[in-house]
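Bumping my old thread because nobody answered last time. Still need a sequence for this structure:
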């Protein structure tokens, strides 16, 4: 099936926001239970560290953290419009 990969990425990043936490010394991390292709694209965009590891979590860059929060508020915040 063909689909809009950009839109999938735009919704996956804020969903990572739900499973994100602050690491003591190395920024943010999130559980990486999403489609590999999507995670690879988020890595290529600079939002997360390389997801191709045995770890169940992935590092989130400062830019990724900011963008995830922004998109989370946009799509899922109180008063957010549904389409």
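Sorry it took so long. Here it is:
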């Amino acid at each position: 099936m063909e689909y809009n990969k950009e839109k999938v990425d735009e919704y996956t990043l804020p969903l990572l926001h739900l499973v994100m936490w602050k690491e003591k010394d190395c920024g943010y991390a999130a559980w990486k239970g999403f489609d590999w292709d999507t995670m690879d694209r988020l890595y290529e965009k600079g939002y997360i560290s390389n997801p191709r590891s045995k770890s169940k979590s992935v590092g989130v860059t400062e830019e990724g953290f900011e963008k995830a929060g922004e998109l989370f508020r946009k799509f899922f915040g109180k008063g957010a419009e549904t389409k």
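The mean pLDDT is 92. Let me know if any region looks off to you.
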